[in-house]
Amino acid sequence: MKNSIPTSATASRDRFPSRDRKGALLPAASADARDISEMQRGQWKNRLLTGAALTATVLLASASTLAAENKRPVTVHVIGFGVDANTTAQLTNMAAAGGGRYFPAANEAELTHALGSAIGVQLAPTASNENEGNNSIGTPTVIASGASVSGKIDPVGDADFYTLDLDQQGRLDVHITPPPGLDIVVRVLNADGADLSGWIAPLAAGGETTGAVNIPARGTYIVQLGDNRNDAASPQPYTLELRFAAGDANEPNGSAGRATLITPGTDAYGSILPVGDQDWYAFDVPRLGAATIRFSQMAPEVDLHFRVLNSERADISGWLAPLKAGADNQAVVDLPAAGRYYIESGDGRNDAGAPAPYRLDLSYDAGDAAEPNNSAGAATRIEPNAQLLASILPRGDQDWFAFTVDHPGIVEVALTGVPAELDLHFRVLSPDWVDISGWVAPLRAGADNVAIVDLPTRGTYYLCVTDGKNDARAAACYALQLRYSRADDHEPNATIGAATEIGIGQDVSGSILPLRDVDCYSFELSQAGSAQISLTNVAPELDLVFRVLNAERVDVSGWKAPLRAGAETTAKVDLKAPGRYYLEVADAKNDARSTAPYTLRVTAP
User: Which residue blocks in 370-478 are alpha helix, DSSP H?
Assistant: First the structure.
């Protein structure tokens, strides 16, 4: 593992490893000015390790321990100084295992840049001089970011070119200290010679020249400088200093196709660098629900906006903005289906950037296990006496259920334990998908909602549950309880054609269920005479009436009524001929029902 330097925290600018070292592990420490100063004074003692396996073990174990102590992840970066291809592959894998990156270095300038990139601190190597003959784009002086170079603008009209390789997007800071008599201008070009910055000039003639240039991608870049009007020269040197602030480790992730895949329930770190940078993230969910997205620890100059797109790249959230630059930005976004979603983030006006990392936290609340059941065709099948938990998530969610009954009757629908933000409404549709209940509403948001719905026939019924205005959601579940009550066994007997045959002197049980139920009976009379008809054991909510019709369906008795609701109904009816007769029983106003059975008896001579 020739001349490799793995590091997890900070590094010395002046104390580079000697060429005969096998490797060096630098101690973990914060990268502030005090630490760097101490390192420059040679206070850190490098531990020499032999063998990539030993180095990896110590590095990753140290990172794990430090992460546990600080309760946040620690990234391990590895620097290879003049290593061969095989060792480069080993070190790249080692860095990946520690969640970091591998930095190659071939000289002291590149090594200094690598150390600075790994720890996020600008380190300056000892200044070097321009190469003679670097006055054209084809003969530039090779330097590294983090370099400090001395050069001369001499003779008049001289231009100096420098080239450097940058391994990712970011921001290149340029600072030139001129000799007296020169006002030096500078620009940065890409490898194709395209101007990225325009000419950067000092504020006043003879002043220092300072600028920041956006680096859009990894590659080779050219720095060109000269006198502003090409009318002056100086035998005294200028100093050119370059500092590169790299974008975050997820770069390049500036499009949906290059989005960084993250897992709900975890956090990620990124930065808006260079100016105009956009960071894309992707995440997958197993079913519909809602995502809580929070960007925090923002640099004060960045007002980070974000939006969420579905798998077809359609915007489902709109752009979400913070209260001000530097503020956190948090929102809950509805996810209407299972699948992949994208988060696009960037500065609000694309006019600011910062190397300081932000934090992205992503959490996900799944819809209930019955999802997707947003339509009658996708209704969740349940038993007519079922009890289950469900949720209105995401916003606008509808929960559809289907249940089958083999007999007419009623069903009590109870929605309880309703989250405070929801006003749950429901309705029931017939087997033909006709609304038979209308929308049933609670007294207020968060209140229980209980009602009885009549089921006039056998078959499959559909129940739809939703928030009243479709303007609220809740990850917390509500409870759904169905209680089905079956009508009497003689049903259906609501017409003369379906009348139930009964015998003279026989006690028959029946019920008025569902609402507006009519029970029809038929009996055979062997001779003319009076028939005594009685309805007893009547439920208190019913005022049962009856009438008798002859074989030609002609009313021969008129309606017989009780004294009051719940009372018996008894009457003697003269039947003037033998033969078939029909008896109709109903609630007087068809406005009451009961699961409790009544008793019918017909006696005759």
Answer: none
Question: DSSP 3-state helix, strand, coil percentages of the chain (rounded to 5)?
Answer: 10, 40, 50
Phi, psi of 385 (to 5 degrees): -125, 35
pLDDT, tens digit (0-9, with 9 covering 90-100), for 221-255: 999 999 999 999 999 999 999 999 888 888 889 99
| pTM of this structure | 0.61
Identify the domain containing residue 518 by its residue range: 496-603
Domain endpoint, select from 68, 96, 119: 119
Taking the CA of residue 589 as centre, how many other CA atoms within 13 Å lie in the half-sphere pointing to its CB?
7
- Start-to-end C-alpha separation, the chain: 117
Over residues 400-455, the pLDDT tens digits come to: 999 999 999 999 999 999 999 999 999 999 999 999 999 999 999 999 999 999 99
Instruction: Based on the fold, state whether residues 470 and 420 are members of the same structural domain.
Output: yes
What stretch of H or E contains 478?
strand 478-486
- Residue 448, both tokens: 């229980």
Whether residue 476 is found in the same domain as residue 519: no
Q: What CATH number is associated with residue 472?
A: 2.60.120.380
Strands (E), 348-448: 358-366, 380-381, 387-390, 398-405, 409-416, 424-429
Which single residue is written with the structure tokens 């933000």? Answer: 421
Instruction: Report the distance separating Cα 399 and Cα 366, nearest Å.
Output: 14
Element (H, E) at 65: helix 52-70
DSSP secondary structure code for residue 350 in this structure = S
